[in-house]
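*** Residues and shapes ***
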Amino acid sequence: MSRLVTDDMMEEALNYLATSSDLIASARARRLRAEFKRKRLRAKLILESNQPSATMREAWAEAHPEYHKACEEEVTAVEADEHARAERNKADTIIETYRTEEATRRAGQSFR
């Protein structure tokens, strides 16, 4: 019977789960800090604007180069957070697949 998940894949997945908590937490924290920074900067820029209407002040703030830079920083942080989460999900899937394959293998042996 051909296996989808090798022992090496299982070991790698377990190792990742055992060692990645700090990485995942750090990526999530960077994401939140970047989001808060972007929001604070937007509010600051709106207050600094000398545009006559609220809509124009918001547009000015969102068109500002500093705001664009903050948005790019947030995108980078979101990407790192999503990557870390995807890697954790991949490890979880590998482990579940391995467990299912092992259970199927053991059930097949008991019928012989």
